[in-house]
Amino acid sequence: MGTKLMDIFEASNLSLRDLSGKKIAVDAFNTIYAFLATIRQPDGTPLMDHQRQVTSHLSGLFYRTVNLLENGIDPAFVFDGEPPKLKADEIARRRAVRGEAFREWKVAKAEGRVEDARKAAQASSRLTTSMITESKALLEALGVPVIQAPSEGEAVAAQMAREGYVWASASQDNDSLLYNCPRMIRNLSITGRRRASRPGSYKVVHPQLIQLDQNLKILGITREQLIDIAILVGTDYNAGLPRVGPKTALKLIRKHGSIEGVEEEKGKMDFPYEEIRQIFLNPPKYEITAPKWNDPDPARIQEILCEQHNFSVERIQSSLSRLEKALEELRGPTEQSTLEDFF
After folding, report:
1. Whether the predicted pLDDT of 339 surpasses 60
2. Is residue 294 assigned to a domain?
3. Is the dihedral of CA 171, 4, 36, 150 positive or negative?
4. Does 208 lie in the same domain as 79?
5. In sequence order, what DSSP letters do the residues of 122-145 get, joined into one string?
6. Cα(79)–Cα(298) distance, rounded to whole angstroms?
7. Is residue 337 predicted with pLDDT exceeding 50?
8. Which pTM was predicted?
9. From CA 65, how far away is CA 75, in angstroms rounded?
10. Integer Cα distance of 70 and 143 in angstroms
11. Is pLDDT at 342 greater than 50 in this prediction?
12. Tell me, what's the pLDDT at 193?
């Protein structure tokens, strides 16, 4: 879920070509969940192989990562580790929501309510341990760095950006900014023509760049105050105040300076805001090794997608042929054997 702060942020639209030559740390869980939610049939049925194993995540990761690499963007995928204990309630809530959505999907599908079924199915998406394992294997076969965070992946992505290993982080959530990420990109994995909320309508989605220092200056607040705003609105660790959105929270912090000041007006908070602050201000330190981008391994990609999960050999070959040509132009001839050796 993350923290909803876009109502107070300024963002600039980009194209993928604007990001050519940039290294970007991608929030892996956030991205994979998006693929699991959106890559489905009209009635909400996910993409599956002959064994009825879900493959929506693999399809999304493969084609989107190939697209990023073709555009000269070097993504590094950061995976979440052990969540903070304060996140337990939110995890339980999400599990309950997914379970209820799954039941609603089955009923709507059986009754022929296609649009209702699709919406419920999207909310029922589950990311399993086996999905995580095979996602990492596919990314490594594509030559993309896979980074395992000790806890929250966005904290490590922000650290990588601060220390110059990547230019920005990429996520649909805003938590990277709370972790002091200088630049965050939204919509990197969903760029292009996408279904809109109205049935049968579509919209074009562009990448958006949010710069932390620029926004703090515009808002006239500090990063610590931004964290307090997020806590008042609600984070993965607390529900926030009733009827308080980002704009109201901004007004409260501008007026009172901090949550402690807000308590004088609103009364004592029923969540441990100081502990939540420390999650963002002092996340576990990760010893970063400079990520390395390698050439794709066509044989391993074929094994994962075509042999294990029944993807079309022709479609995978076509995408990898394009990628090989693009990488030769960007990096020079690849060190791996050519695609013709495997297809």
Report:
1. no
2. no
3. positive
4. yes
5. HHT----HHHHHHHHHHHHHTT--
6. 24
7. no
8. 0.91
9. 8
10. 13
11. no
12. 59
